[in-house]
Amino acid sequence: xxxxxxxTGFARAxxxxxxxxxxxxxxxxxxxxxxxxxxxxxxxxxIEPMARQRLQKCFARGNxxxxxxxxxxxxxxxxxxxxxxxxxxxxxAGRLQEQxxxxxxxxxxxxxxxxxxxxxxxxxxxxxxxxxxxxILAALDDALRGLEEARRAEGGALEAxxxxxxxxxxxxxxxxxxxxxxxPEAIRERLREQVARLMDATTGFDADRLHAEAAILxxxxxxxxxxxxxxxxxxxxxxxxxxxxPIGRKLDFMGQEFNxxxxxxCSKSNAATVTAIGLELKAVVDQFRxxxxxxx
Length: 296
Description:
Elements: E1 9-17, E2 20-29, E3 34-39, H1 48-58, E4 62-72, E5 79-81, H2 83-100, H3 107-111, E6 117-119, H4 126-178, H5 184-201, H6 207-221, H7 224-243, H8 248-268, H9 272-292
Parallel strand pairs: 3-4
Antiparallel strand pairs: 1-2, 2-4, 5-6
Helix pairs in contact: 1-4, 4-7, 4-9, 5-6, 7-8, 8-9
Domain Endoribonuclease YicC-like N-terminal: 4-159
Domain Endoribonuclease YicC-like C-terminal: 181-296
Family: Belongs to the YicC/YloC family.
């Protein structure tokens, strides 16, 4: 099982109880923090605080929606008729028939009126209610384990993608470092040609001063520090992924650092080959940051 979790997943768990059937369905999507929403049948609001505590122990990030369905056992469904109310409604129906000639009231029509017929609470017994609550929470634990497994399964796929992208960032960093344009000879020749063009096109320049200024510009354009920082970030990203757990925020910050170094590399580049590698590096970093958004 992967050490990482995605923030997306779905799970379903069901249990039977003497009072009826219990079904939990839980789905999770991306979120900046952990946000849980519960949809519970009327009369089961008492479950939410305990259910929320269980969910918070399992996950650190993600928008989670948990839905409980409870189907009462037929054996416990007892109809209850409000006879006083029924008599009043029947009497009213009789008067309407006498005064206005309306159709006579039928039994099924009267029973269908709101408030006439209801069903007794099948779990009014305290012991049965406690047993039912225990079963509901046990089913929730099953669903939470299923959701965690689903998120870890996708986390395994994300881990492979992220490690591959880090390897691509490392390979591009190697290409930048080994690019022929960064050799002292190539830099010296490029500067010599630039200075020569300036001297040919302009009079009154101090050649020594111009060479000194060119040397300063060359030092500012050097990307040694960017390469070193990229390598540091690469090692840190691999260590984070290996550590597992809820590392999405930390890897998101690492993606920002990758992006900053690749931008600086492109801006300081004075060779077309390095610029091309830098642009490809930016593209891979963007892909890395996009995948990190799915990680817990």
